[in-house]
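Is zinc ion placement plausible here? Inputs below.
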Amino acid sequence: MSGNTAYEAIEKYRGELEELSLKIWENPEGPYKEHNACKWTAELLEKHGFHVEIGAGGVPTAIKASFGEGHPVIGFLGEYDALPGLSQEKCTVQKPIEGQVYGHGCGHNLLGVAHVGAVLGLKDEMIERGLKGTIIYYGCPAEEVLTGKSFMARGGAFDGLDTAIAFHPGTMNVVDVGNSLALNSVKFHFVGKTAHAGGDPHNGRSALDAVEITSVGANYLREHVTTDVRIHYVITEGGTAPNIVPDSATVWYYVRAPKREKVEEVYQRLIKVAEGAAHMTETKLEINFLGGCYQTLNNHVLAKVVHEAMNAIPQEPWSAEEIKMAREMNQFDPQLAEAIRKAANLPADAEIFTGVMPIVNEGNAGSTDVGDVAYIAPTIFFSTACYNLGAPGHSWQITSSSGSSIGQKGMIYASKIMAKFGLDMIEKPEILKEAKAEFDEKTGGAPYKCPIPDDIKIPE
Ligand SMILES: [Zn+2]
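Reply from A.M.:
I modeled the complex. Tokens:
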């Protein structure tokens, strides 16, 4: 039966896959700094016969690893970056690992490796059954700052794809066809003039004032945008002591909206706010545009394919130990755990998700740079249960689960689902044709235009 060889192969490689995901978990790296994760992942793919290119699209920690030839060309979108402030031991209480800042609080150690498992399994079945097609593993850096794939796309890494699939660890087994938000990321850096804040403040021009006035302006701007727009910020630099007028201050903004065009429009208005703040405070403004991404454009035809695979592939039961771990962590957010139980119709004593959700049509207010690939080729996005039910997004509970066997089981299940997706794309060309028709209808045939201009440098 189609898929059996791939599933067996994934089980055969399971030890190597789990080892790689744990190694990445133990060595979390920030956006554009995923040198180890990139190297280790590339080594495993090379060992198993993939043609590996490091630096795909000009991004140093990106991978493009291919096997096979001809059409269909199928992309598997792995990620491997971690989050700051989410270092955590593998235990059921919050306990950062001493001396470690980053942690896999979004489970990308499972994310990147699940796609490796998929292509390894798929490759074995393609060889055994003489199936034609090209499968490409993409190691995509810096998803946590939402620009890795956009830079890769600018560099042409995804050109020629017929379709792509992206898995993300989650609390449920679910295919989501709702759209996430498009985004722009920008840092406003103000340069003023320092002075003694008590002695001669009249000689100072405060960069921090400019940051604060920008925030005031942005607050008023929020009143005059549509309700679906999100504008949020953090001050990353604001001076050193109250008695020194800060001559340097920086504020980092995200602008999000359901459509790329809306983001561009509000972004231009936010720039006017920052320029106004610079004018008022007699400081100099430097605009550091960090990049942006598209909203996702999901595909109903592909959603059905993934949903069927999820239902067809058996899930491993959770062990007593895993359930105990989940129960202990659910105590930190019982409301969230209860909300998920209700939404998913789970029994009152469920601690981790079991089953498959119906296809979800609701969008969410987050963003992902998978959106950029979704505007290049028909793309589908799905999740499997890799955490306890009450794990909030970007949390220590997720770091802990992602390093445990709960995460590993979700990862292997995802590998099998994606291998099956790949086989369906190869064996049922009529489905891919239908998916392309949906894609063409939604994009109106417009070619992808990268939100990041050519003169913006790729971060290192
Ligand atoms: Zn993530």
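Short version: The domain at 182-292 is CATH 3.30.70.360 (Alpha-Beta Plaits).
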